[in-house]
Amino acid sequence: ALKLGDLDLVTRYLGRTYSLSGRVAHGKKTGSKLGFPTANLYFDERRQLPKYGIYATRVEVNGRLYQGVTNVGIRPTFDDGNSPSVETLLLDFDDMIYNKLIHVNFIHFLREEKKFDRISDLVEQIEQDKKEARRILKNGIQSPYLPT
After folding, report:
1. Contacts of 122 (CB under 8 A, 6+ apart)
2. Do 57 and 17 touch, CB atoms closer than 8 A?
């Protein structure tokens, strides 16, 4: 179910949302240059990743939950490598969190990862992804890492 991006089924099997936890790493600053700074996650490479693509996520940072858009994959517009990355655009967030532990809860698969020929097309798509994630995440979901 995780490899297919079926998060509803994953949640039923786990009894909670699928999540990845790790420390925020320095990346190539590509997102920041485009106006979308992302938190790049150090994660255990033995961990099974979900299907490559873009997800609506809820992210715990410093004990607070934020809405996010998370890319899992190889960043085909910028990278030709095969090493996957997990990077999250935190919505309504502007703190420095390098080396901070964060928990990314995967709520909904938005779309497949794809290569864009023009950066302007990627920027437009990211704006659409943000709007769609906000729409989906408007109803709060509690993090399994925060006390209720």
Report:
1. 34, 77, 116
2. no
